[in-house]
Design goal:
Strand content of chain B: 15-25%
Radius of gyration of chain A: 41 Å
Largest sheet of chain B: 6 strands, mixed
Radius of gyration of chain B: 22 Å
CATH architecture of the largest domain in chain B: 3-Layer(aba) Sandwich
Shape of chain B: globular
Helix content of chain B: 40-55%
Structural class of chain B: alpha/beta
Distance between the termini of chain B: 44 Å
Shape of chain A: extended
Helix content of chain A: 40-55%
Number of strands of chain B: 17
Largest sheet of chain A: 8 strands, mixed
Strand order of the largest sheet of chain A: 5-4-3-6-2-1-7-8
Number of domains of chain B: 2
Structural class of chain A: alpha+beta
Number of strands of chain A: 27
Number of helices of chain A: 23
Strand order of the largest sheet of chain B: 10-7-13-12-14-15
Order of helices and strands of chain B: HEEEEHEHHEEEEEEEHHEHEHHEHEHHEH
Oligomer: heterodimer
Number of helices of chain B: 13
């Protein structure tokens, strides 16, 4: 690789020489060289990616316009090339926008929007155009008819890779039989080796977009693959949202602060972020203050000493007024547990104003400042030489409270003394940020350990810090304005920390359109013929300020393929992810779940489970974190992985109870099989030993199996159907007795239907556990009967009628 | 058969009837639409109670049910019905078989489900049938593989054998080994005797020592060899010797927890056959030794108690059969000294010590001599 760095001792002119070769690279040019980043690394894959980009765009466009998507995809062999045609019934694109949408990379409406959509960067479809022009040299042919227009526009265009601008090769007005929509036709060097992935993509798209109608024609198909709509209900419309305070990074924040028109930080927060009102902004600002200025620690005051000091600090105000002022300040302070510096300032101000009212004497700023200074000096007096120490006592109480009772009193006293010394040496107003405070406590604790030969562990230190911090009060100073914040990286960083620290409501989720558990299940039902379906939709969560919702679905049994790993369908914002399964967070999550707990086989207890099952996972977010621009795999974000796991487990729990039930039914069948062998043998033997006729064992067997038995008794013309419920819950069988002769005396609870000389006696008794119900009617003479019982699992039913 | 007496014939008839009744009960259960089942007393230590009247330990009120409700239960009942058929047929034909033969014989049954999977299973089933029918195994004509126990002493008896009645004197007509107890001792008739008491001995070695030293002659005692846990026939004979000849019975075992259980099954009945206690147990039987007390008094050579011995002793303390002052005192003493001794330990003081000193002293103490 060429080094662009000039090296010492080489020719003077080398940098200049190199500079000649250095120039800006167009984005189009860059991608021309890095096709794989966009999913165009091979002919096989390129075709799938192109289909995917075009279909995603079409679906987005339709949904945005509230149109039920009807999408047609065709692939044709044309000489050495493949021609791809994708047509939709979307709202169309205006003549002005069209060339840019298809002919300029990174042009789109969605990059800046916090809203769930399939496409985001505005790269996809133009990359497909670029890929086709690079491999076949032919322009993309695009027809679009905006809704309401009489004619369609036809363009042939290529992308100028030097400038990343569309170059229109042909342009004309044309007529089109669709009333609105867009059609793109590109030719590219490709092959159909990825046919399976292509079919998967279309099929899976149909699963998660049950509102869309899809059709695929390609050379390998005799019949076009058609996927009809499963629902007429369009996904909920999504709303764009502002960023969430928990989701911005420092660089972004600085950019936002620079760009905002707000003057105050509070205004900025309320204006630019979602879920921030006045109250939340105030909380953030308080946290910002704590970080920017630190908090102040308050101290107790000795009333007399304060009164004396304040009185001494006031001059020329007359004895009465001075006396009133000094004693008011002293008594107010004496009545408080502790007072911080800015609280003292406020108190002095209030008392001064009162004194002015009372005595008509002016207590100006100088007097007030002097009074504050005198009182504060008294409260925080600390001079080791003069044996003056107002601080240690206050601190002793706090340290004692914060440390465990096992701490030696001498150690607590020593710690308090060392803290006092450090506070006295520190800020005059006793201000400290949380980290300053931690440092201070750490130093004091280290000294205590060293000189008092005591242990002062991390927990004890933390407790002391927290005890102090919780007693310290937020100052009232005005926070820096937006402009100052923008100018200073550290201040901005403090603001960011404050934002993250503050509890703020999760972002609104109307920017997301989950498929919903109901439709996930419907989608699976539509495309997979299984015995069991389950689906779960989680509540919205936030990662990096972007809300996301995870949904999972499971289909099991039926026609699904058995004998290998389960099929994992991955979706992001309703787009199937076809490639790079192994690199995807969803795969990792599925692998680390213990599937044996849920009744699926999992060799070794981890990894992909085996069985006739499909697991689908859908992540919807305003910003889905992919591992790369080709959008094949979700990145491993813990917050998202956790939600994926919870969603999958939720659906898996249903699978488990289904499988358990199936297993218990199987056990019941096995038991019935074995007993069905043993009991007749036993009956034969007892009849042999006793020399009596073989006993009827059906009733005993039904009772053993907790079954519902249906028996027929006949006595002359009277027919009795008896339902005996041996289970422990109420059963509601649908009994249909088909009789060859017209029945009479049928009670009201049953109905008789005459069907071509056969009479259907329908009866729905409700039989509580352990009881029986009887239906009695009469038939004249010989008759054939055929009873049919529904509404009870066949395993639980013994019919002897 | 010439050997049949009206008494045994009656038993056989009753046995057969009881078995058929059991099958008929299953039949009726089927007919009523009930689940066939068979209720048995629970055979555990916690479910035996003292029968004041008979002075023996019998099963309490707790029962367990073998029901066709489960596959396991159904298999058991099927096997029971097959076994009933076999036993009824055996009684009809006046044949007999051993427990082991029954196990192998099940292989020939037409139902695979009815075949026994282990001999424990067939043994247990025979016990079950004994309990529900109230008929003993001997009356079913089922015998164990071997009994092995022998009697030596001044006793003349008549045994009904398949080859006719035999009169036997258990000292004069037998060799050093003594008289072999038949499987069903109820075929024996006592003729006359000069015996003073019955001495049951646990080990063969000690029995041989007593016989060699002429203890049975010198003290007019009937020496019964128990050979470990005594077979039913041995216990039945012992009981008959006591009941019919009015002889005191004493039991002479090792000084360890397992031997106390041997005494227990002679005197109180075993847990497994508590349904037959009245027929098998001799509640008046007394324990000679070796007592833990003897270990101390005679300074016998000992082995330390193993963990399993300690557990067994502790479990005996909780066994209702051993809740007497004598046993509680002795067992606690043994736990205290932590030692056990064999019968043969007495040889430490000479081969004749047991016959010349120990037994006479002990028996005198107990009032037997």
């Amino acid at each position: 690789m060429t080094s662009f760095q000039s090296q010492l001792g080489e020719d003077q002119g080398i940098a200049d020489e190199l500079a000649e070769g250095q120039r800006e690279i167009s984005i189009a040019e860059f991608f021309e060289k890095n096709k794989h980043m966009l999913g165009f690394d091979s002919g096989a894959r390129g075709l799938v990616t192109a289909v995917k980009e075009a279909v995603d765009n079409a679906l987005d466009a339709c949904e945005e316009a509230g149109i039920r998507p009807d999408i047609y995809v065709e692939i044709r062999e044309v000489g050495d090339y493949y021609r791809l045609i994708v047509e939709d019934n979307g709202p169309g694109i205006t003549k002005e926008q069209l060339p840019k949408v298809f002919g300029k990379l990174l042009y789109g409406s969605r990059f800046h929007a916090r809203e769930q959509s399939r496409g985001q960067q505005g790269i996809g479809i133009s990359a497909a155009v670029l890929y086709s022009q690079l491999t076949s040299g032919k322009p993309a042919k695009i027809t679009s008819r905006p809704k309401g227009e009489a004619d369609a526009q036809y363009f042939e265009l290529i992308i100028d890779t030097d400038t990343n601008e569309p170059e229109i090769k042909a342009e004309r007005t044309t007529s089109w039989d669709r009333t609105h929509g867009t059609r793109i036709e590109v030719e590219m060097e490709a092959n159909m080796r990825a046919r399976q992935q292509l079919h998967d993509y279309i099929k899976h798209t149909a699963v998660v977009n049950p509102h869309a109608r899809l059709e695929l024609r390609e050379p390998g198909l005799d019949e076009p693959l058609k996927f009809e709509r499963g629902t007429d209900q369009l996904p909920a419309e999504t709303k764009e949202i502002r960023p969430h305070p928990h989701g911005v990074e420092l660089g972004t924040l600085i950019k936002m602060v620079e760009a905002t028109e707000s003057y105050s930080v509070s205004g900025f927060l309320q204006e630019e972020f979602t879920r921030v009102g006045k109250k939340t902004a105030d909380k953030v600002i308080d946290n910002f203050r704590d970080r920017h200025f630190g908090r102040e620690l308050g101290w107790s005051a000795d009333g007399e000493a304060v009164a004396e000091a304040v009185a001494a600090a006031v001059s020329n105000k007359g004895a009465d007024a001075t006396d009133f002022f000094a004693s008011e300040v002293a008594s107010t302070l004496g009545g408080r547990e502790r007072t911080s510096h800015h609280e003292l300032v406020e108190i002095v101000d209030e008392v001064a104003a009162a004194a002015e009212d009372e005595h008509g004497t002016r207590f100006g700023a100088t007097v007030r400042d002097n009074a504050v200074e005198a009182a504060w000096a008294t409260m925080t007096a600390y001079d080791e030489d003069a044996d003056e120490d107002e601080l240690t006592d206050d601190l002793y109480g706090l340290v004692d409270e914060a440390t465990s009772t096992r701490k030696d009193d001498a150690v607590v006293a020593g710690m308090a003394q060392r803290l006092a010394r450090r506070f006295a040496a520190g800020d005059d107003r006793m201000r400290a940020t949380h980290s300053d405070l931690s440092t201070l406590v750490d130093e004091a604790a280290d000294d205590t350990e060293e000189f008092d030969d005591a242990t002062f562990g991390d927990t004890a230190r933390e407790n002391v810090v927290e005890a102090l911090w919780s007693r310290m009060v937020t100052v009232a100073d005005d926070v820096p304005k937006v402009r100052e914040t923008a100018a200073d990286r550290d201040t901005a960083s403090e603001l960011l920390e404050a934002m993250r620290e503050t509890d703020i409501l999760a972002p609104p989720t109307d920017c997301l359109a989950p498929i919903t558990a109901e439709l996930v299940e419907a989608g699976l039902r539509k495309e997979f013929d299984a015995d069991f379906y389950a689906a779960a939709t989680r509540d919205a969560e936030v990662h990096g300020g972007d809300p996301f919702i995870v949904e999972a679905g499971i289909a099991y049994g039926g026609e699904l393929e058995d004998g290998g790993q389960v099929d994992l369908l991955r979706f992001a914002n309703r787009v199937p992810l076809v490639y790079q399964r192994g690199a995807c967070a969803t795969t990792d999550v599925v692998k680390r779940i213990g599937w044996r707990n849920y009744g699926l086989d999992q060799p070794g207890g981890s990894g992909m489970p085996n069985g006739p099952a499909v697991i689908m996972i859908h992540v919807a977010s305003t910003n889905v974190p992919f591992t790369s621009e080709s959008k094949d795999a979700l990145a491993n974000i813990p917050a998202i992985e956790d939600e994926i796991e919870l969603a999958v487990r939720e659906a898996a729990r249903e699978l488990k109870s289904y499988l358990n039930k199936r297993r218990s039914m199987q056990k019941r069948r096995e038991k019935q099989d074995v007993l069905g062998r043993i009991l007749p043998e036993m009956a034969d033997k007892v009849s042999e030993v006793t020399g009596r006729e073989r006993p009827n064992i059906d009733a005993a067997l039904a009772r053993i199996m907790n079954n519902v038995g249906v028996e027929r008794e006949r006595e002359g013309d009277t027919v009795r159907l008896v339902v005996e419920n041996h289970s422990d819950r109420t059963e509601n069988p649908d009994v249909t007795d088909i009789v060859s002769v017209e029945p009479a005396d049928v009670p009201e609870e049953a109905t008789v239907v005459d069907l071509d000389g056969e009479w259907f006696v329908k009866w729905n008794p409700s039989v509580p556990g352990g009881e029986e119900a009887t239906l009695e009617y009469t038939v004249a003479g010989d008759a054939d009967f055929d009873v049919n019982v529904d509404g009870i699992e066949t395993e639980k039913l013994t019919v002897n009628a | 058969m010439s050997a049949d007496t009206p008494h045994t014939k009656l038993n056989e008839e009753k046995a057969r009837e009881q078995l058929i009744d059991l099958a008929a009960e299953f039949y009726d259960q089927f007919e009523h639409g009930d689940i066939p089942e068979m209720t048995l007393p629970t055979r555990t230590k916690s479910n035996i109670v003292f029968d004041e009247e008979a002075g023996v330990w019998v099963y309490g009120d707790r029962t367990s049910t073998r029901s066709a409700n489960s596959v396991r239960g159904a298999r058991k009942l099927l096997k029971a019905v097959y076994a009933v058929e076999f036993l009824a047929q055996q009684l009809d034909e006046d044949r007999s078989s051993t427990l082991r033969e029954l196990y192998y014989l099940s292989e020939s049954w037409d139902s695979e489900e009815a075949q026994f999977t282990s001999q424990d299973e067939s043994n247990q089933l025979i016990e079950d049938l004994e309990i529900v029918s109230g008929v003993t195994r001997e009356d079913f004509h089922m015998r164990p593989e071997e009994s092995g126990a022998k009697v030596m002493g001044p006793l003349r008896l008549r045994e009904q054998t398949r080859r006719g009645d035999r009169d036997i004197h258990c000292q004069e007509d037998v060799g050093q080994g003594g008289y072999q107890i038949p499987n069903n001792p109820d075929t024996i008739e006592f003729l006359d005797n000069d015996a003073e008491f019955v001495l049951c001995v646990e080990t063969g070695g000690m029995r041989d020592r007593l016989v060699e030293n002429g203890f049975d002659v010198d003290y007019d005692s009937i020496v019964v060899h128990l050979g470990g846990q005594p077979a039913r026939a041995t216990r039945r004979l012992t009981k008959r010797l006591h009941d019919e000849l009015d002889l005191p019975v004493v039991v002479f075992c090792d000084g360890d927890p397992w031997s106390y259980r041997i005494y227990g099954s002679v005197a109180y009945g075993s847990i497994k056959s508590a349904h037959l206690s009245e027929y098998l147990a001799t509640p008046e039987a007394e324990y000679v030794g070796i007592r833990p007390q003897d270990i101390v008094d005679y300074d016998l050579p000992t082995d330390p108690l193993a963990d399993s011995d300690v557990n067994a002793l502790e479990s005996e303390l909780e066994d209702p059969r051993f809740q007497t002052d004598f046993w509680e005192e002795q067992i606690e003493l043994q736990l205290d000294i932590g030692k056990k001794a064999e019968q043969q330990a007495l040889a430490a003081q000479g081969l004749d010590f047991v016959t010349d000193t120990y037994l006479p002293e002990r028996l005198e103490e107990m009032g037997v001599l």
